[in-house]
Structure formats: structure tokens, C-alpha cells
Amino acid sequence: MAESAVNLLIDLLKPIIANEVRLLGGIHAEVKDIMDEMESMVSCLREADRREDDNEGVKTWLKQLRDAAYDTEDVVEEYLLHLASLLEGKGRLVKFIHRNFQCALHLRKRHQIAIRVREIKSRVQKIAARRERYGLGLHLEREHRIVNMKRIILLSYTDLPYNLKSCFLYLSLFPEDYNIKFMKLIRLWMAEGFVKSNQQNIMVEEVAKEYINVLIKRGLILIADRNSYGKVISCRVHDVVREIILSKAREENFTTFTDGVHMFRLLKVIDLDGMPLKVFPPEITELLHLRYLSLRDTSISELPKSIKRLHNLETLDLKGTMVRELPVEILKLRKLRHLLVYRYDDIQLNRPFDSVKGVRMPIGIGKMLELQKLSYLDGRPGQVKELRKLTQLKRLGIIKLRTEDGRDLCDAIQNMESLLSFSVASSHENELLDLCLSQPPKLLQRVYLKGMLESLPSWITMLQNLVKLPTVVQIEGRPI
């Protein structure tokens, strides 16, 4: 094996170079260079030996290195033996003869050996350069970079405030190379109680967004995707960072995996996104501490009346399910902040107008004062007026809006100072949308309109923060 040959040579040269510089004379520097090159290649020899059977190029490289090691050993030993022979002799006369009459022979021999040493040095340097062709030792360079990266990441982690450490370790729950939805992560952190606002006028969601920005700036999470106007919509974790997260999570007992259900009563989060479920699991309503429940993209078609037991629930995600109507018991969930219930149908049939399917809510939605996201709501008679009580809304989506309910909707929207996104669709393509706002919400960024308009609302031009205005509407029979 080349590894053995090189290590034996290094063991031979180290004491010679350290203690017999005078004996090596002019070839000392050359021999030391050879040893340095050999030492630099030792680390990748084990990898090369493993790959020898699969790669002819590696096999040739190993043979060349092995031969160079043997040749170096031979020439150094020959030189040392030659020097030893010059010092042999028992009398002064012998030493005098050696010193004076054989001096020329010694110089000639040393010159010959020096030439051979320089040739071997050149060979070894070329062999060392060729290892890059086969990728030998590159993994060691990568490992060195990874070690340095881990050291930096650990320093960043150690420097995090305690509340951000919990948010960071929570990322251990996501699979490798998984794109984590920005808003979903925020809702999960909130449900776990990791995010709190110390100022009355700053919402918890805004604090959570700032947490994510801090982690991005520190390089602990990466931006995975942005929308068309630059807003971050998903993030991910680098493989090296994920290793550290998993290690720290185990070390600090942050996560626990169990097959039993005896510990489930204290659960705050259940994410069943995409699971093959057709019926709502009744056991869920026994989890009285639950704050986050996602049944997104399941085949569930209705919620049980016992849903009212989840009085701590803050997020209910039913996007992509078959739920058409919510039970009246949903009104008992007074802490609910995010209610997402809609799906997209018939897009493949080129029917964009009614592709969004919403949900029928019971009368009394105005009692759910903590709601911040509500989409999509079927605009049933008498219900639109209740929206004026939901002043905390940031996102509102309503479909099947009748012309006569337009004024009530506008009155409600004018009270929603935090509204960022507003989507409305009339009951059918020829239904007139009556959207006369005297003072639209100042923070409004996205407006989605579907239906018939007498004219484009004048208040649209008053929106200083508007970034998106997609429309599927007609004005006096003409699409715009």
C-alpha cells in the first residue's frame, strides 16, 4: 500500500532532517521538500487506496507515489552509507588519505546523489499536483471548511437570545431540503409560545417576522423563494446548519419522538398536511391545549361539533380540503386568528372566475374578534355586515358577493386599519361589484377583483403601498 510506503519514508526522514543536517549537506533542503510533499499527501492516501480497484487513474497515481517513496528512501540511505564509509578507518593516516585524496570522489558522488534527489523531488511535486485530477483530498478540504462553518454557526447560535434559540431549534422538525413556508413557520412559532410581543401596538406576527429576519442575517436560515414583488415566501436550512440543529435539539432534549399517545394531551400543534384522511380524527378535540391545527390537502369534508372544545385554537388550516360549511360551534373559538378554508377547482377547464371555492360560515362571525386572516368566505345574506366588527383583519377573502352587499362590505373594510390583502369575487360574472370606498386602509398592498364594475374604483389610486392588482372584471361589458 502506498500509505505504508510513504509513512515509512517519513519515519526515516524526520530524525535525519532534525539531527543530521550536517551529514545531508547541500541536499538537506531538497530532502525536506520531498518529505513535506509526502506528508501533505498522507491524508488522502486512505481514500485513494479505497478507490484503487474502481479507478485505473488512481491506481497509476498510487504506484507512482509508492515508487517515488521507495526511490527517495534508497537514495537517502545510499548517501548516508557513502558518508559513513568516508569516516571509517583506525588511524590518522587513513583519515588524512580519506580527507585529501578521496575528496574529489566524494564530491562527485554527492553531486550524483543531489541530481537524483532533485529528480525525485520534481516527480513528487508532479504526483502531488495530479491528485487534484482525481479529486483526492478534496473531501478533506471540504471537511475543513465544514468544521470552520460549524464553528461559526455554533458561535452565532450561542449568541442568540433565548427566545430565538427555541425558534431556531424548532427547525429540527422539518425534513432535509424542505422549503418552509414563511407564514406557516410564524404560525407554528406562535402556537408553541416562542414569540411574544412586549409592546401593545406591535402584533406578535410582526415580532415573528423580525425573528426570521435575524436568523437570515446571521446565515442560520436561507431564503428559498420570493414572490413577484420580492417578499420572502419560503426559507430552508443548509445541511450543515441542520446537523447542528439536530445535535443541539437532542442535547437539550428539545424534541421527543414517541409511539405512545399518553403524552399527547398537552400538544399545542398538530400538522396533518397531506395525510390520507377522509374523516376528522375525533381524538383531536380532546387536545384542549391545541393552538395550531392543519388538515390542509386532506379529504376531510366536515368538522365535528366537538370542535368547540378547542377553545385555545389560534390557527385552523383547511385549505385544499372538501369542507364546504363550518358548524355553528366554530363560533366558540374566540381565540382563532387564522381561518383558512378554500380550494381551487376547474382551473384545468379554463374557468378562472369561479375556480376559488370558499366556505359557508354560520351567522355570528362578528363574535370572532381576534381573526386576522379569513379566506374565503361565502357572502351569504346578512353576514357581510358582521365583518365590520373584525377590525384586526389583515387578510380578507370573500366570494359570491351580491351587488346589494357591496356597500356593507366597503363600510366594514374602512374599519380594518391593518388590512394588507383584500380579495372579492361577485356571485357570477355579470354581477355588479359595488365597491365605493371613501377611505381605503392605508396599509393595503394586494387587491384582487373578480366581477362586473361600472368603472375602476377611484380609491385604487389612493393606495400608496399597492404592489398587486390582478383583475378578472368587466367594465360596461368590456373585460380589463
TrEMBL record:
Q: Which GO terms describe its molecular function?
A: nucleotide binding
**Which CDD domains does the record match to this protein?**
RX-CC_like
Domain (Disease resistance N-terminal): give its ranges: 5-86
Q: What Pfam families does UniProt report for this protein, alphabetically?
A: LRR_14, Rx_N, WHD_DRP
What range(s) does the Disease resistance protein winged helix domain occupy? 173-245
Name the keywords, alphabetized: Leucine-rich repeat, Nucleotide-binding, Plant defense, Repeat
User: What GO biological process terms does the UniProt entry carry, in alphabetical order?
Assistant: defense response to bacterium; innate immune response-activating signaling pathway; plant-type hypersensitive response
Query: Taking every annotated instance into account, which residue ranges of this chain make up the domain Disease resistance R13L4/SHOC-2-like LRR?
Result: 261-474
Q: Which family does it belong to?
A: Belongs to the disease resistance NB-LRR family.
Name the PANTHER family on file.
DISEASE RESISTANCE PROTEIN RP, DISEASE RESISTANCE PROTEIN RPM1
Protein's UniProt name: Disease resistance protein RPM1
**What is the scientific name of the source organism?**
Acorus gramineus (Dwarf sweet flag)
Taxonomically, what lineage is the organism?
Eukaryota, Viridiplantae, Streptophyta, Embryophyta, Tracheophyta
